[in-house]
Amino acid sequence: MNIQRKYSLPNCTLLLEGLSDATRAAHFQEMRPELSILVNAECYLSGYKQPLVGGREFFESLVRAVSGYAQEFLSNVPNPLAHNTESELVQFQKIHSNRHRLIVHSEVQKNPEAKSNNGKAPIQIDLNSVQLFDLVEAVDQFFADSQTLPELSLELQPVGKGSGMASQAFIKQAVPAGVGVSSLAVCALAFGLIPTPQVRQPQQQTNSTTPSTTSSAADATNPTPSAIPTASAAPIANATPTPTTTPTATSAVTTDLESLLKTVPEITDASQLRALNRQVYNQINPDWANRSGLNEDLVYRIGVAADGAIVGYKAINKEANQAIEKTPLPKLLYNPAKRGGINNEPIAQFRVVFTQQGVLQVSPWRGYANTPQVIGAKITDANAVKDLNKKLYDTIRQNWSGTPTFSQNLKYRVAVNKDGTIADYEPLNQVAFDYFRETPLPKIFNALYGSNVAPPNTKQPLAHYQVVFQPNGNLEVTPWQGYR
Predict the structure, then answer these.
(1) Per-range mean pLDDT, top range of 23-27, 227-231, 295-299, 456-460
(2) What percentage of the chain has pLDDT greater than the value 70?
(3) How far apart are CA 254 and CA 237, in angstroms?
(4) What predicted TM-score, i.e. pTM, was given to this entire model?
(5) What ranges in 288-424 are assigned the alpha helix state H?
(6) SS3 for 463-480, per residue?
(7) How far apart are the C-alpha atoms of 40 and 59, rounded to whole Å?
(8) Per-residue pLDDT, 260
(9) End-to-end distance of the chain based on CA atoms, in angstroms?
């Protein structure tokens, strides 16, 4: 299967295409496998219609030249990595302080033993400093992605502290674009601020995945609507595996979620899982645009960090594996260059189902071990709870109009602050998800917070209620008794 990796900045995009080494993935399946065999590399630069294209030799030369030239540019000390005309396919030339010439030779020209005589003239592209450092940042994103060519490491040599002629003002002028991990390493090495980074041994990495409903016994207490039976939990690879320190060189890093959870905690607290369940749903549902044309339900298992970041996903059925591009999961997967690696963070597992009917279903992979509780400070004074109950009823009643088209009760948990202002709401059954736009809740919430799904980030105590919209137009508001 062809694998693609894309690293995008405003002025530069790197697109890598390749294959996974089957011998490395013999014991597990994964939705985002390790790209270990590079077949094609393309570099798109703003202002130029045609990309720079080449194979592994071209890409490795590009990485070396970009890193070396960035170090040279910041230190004003010549770096041979950027100008090796004898062996490198890619070189740089400094035109002036804000103009940099990127030169790309054909592989035929650089191979004197090649029999072909149709080599093309070198490609020359002039970049400004913003374009240059977007290219540096794209290379940085590549190095931060441990599932792409993991054996390829950034090798930089520090220059002497006395050799550099750049000042802090020069740095600020030379780096107008955002600077990432390898970019910072380039800058620091340019001024002898840090030692040369040690080369990491190649590590096999894999990919994990997504939430939805489960059929375990714990589903008896699972408030997520429309639980759907699923196969037994199969091994799942983690999107960003945690490297393990081992005493022998032959030991392998963790390659599946079950193994990973032996070294990092698994989030099993029912209340935390309930909160993460909502975060996952609110991430995926708005971005699921193509909801038609599914031959069957697409079922995925996902891994989620404590902050709600989707760290990996795995298809559970064959159709899910083939139709991954019909879901928003690939673009919602966390960016290791922006967030950092998933080191020893706790991970929660969820099951996600994209149904043929266009309905998204999300629930904990193992269900809830006990009844979840609402997280956060609560208003518990009986008089205050009673008064706020009436305020909430009046607010919803005044804003609910029209003839209901639903045939079942819509149930929600709604929270208000001490002033009676709605601070949070959550659907409790599937029809509440399906018909939420027929209630006044999203309109009220959006007017207050600019979103109709994501709860505001607040630490204030809240009073919680169950709100039921009935098909006959009746409204019920009662103090919250917990998830049932």
Answers:
(1) 295-299
(2) 66
(3) 9
(4) 0.47
(5) 318-322, 329-332, 336-339, 382-399
(6) EEEEEEECCCCCEEEEEC
(7) 9
(8) 57
(9) 45
